């Protein structure tokens, strides 16, 4: 594995927390907390989903695990980079912010979202 930082997309975190079929794919990136970066937007998406599907206690526990990585805040520079990516690659806002966060930090993006398949510096696995 390279020494580049890792960024796990929200879908990867949810897969890991649910111990889904692809959880083992995401585990190495998530558990290597020294190289893990976590966009604040992923905190939002994961907290919301776990809160909807489980309860606030489980959602807070998930966020506690995520916060072991280095948090990436959405600042003006990142927002504009994400907007350019969104326009160029026809990505939704959340996806463009996550991709821009990975590129800003020269990180590998780990995901099971098909629209990232084939992009540079992306580790993709199809949903099962």
From TrEMBL:
Highest taxon above the source species: Bacteria
Pfam families listed in its UniProt record: PIN
Xref: InterPro entries: PIN-like_dom_sf, PIN_dom
SUPFAM superfamilies named among the record's database cross-references: PIN domain-like
Residue span, PIN domain: 7-120
Name by which UniProt lists this protein: Nucleic acid-binding protein
Species, as recorded: Candidatus Accumulibacter adjunctus
Lineage: Bacteria, Pseudomonadati, Pseudomonadota, Betaproteobacteria, Candidatus Accumulibacter
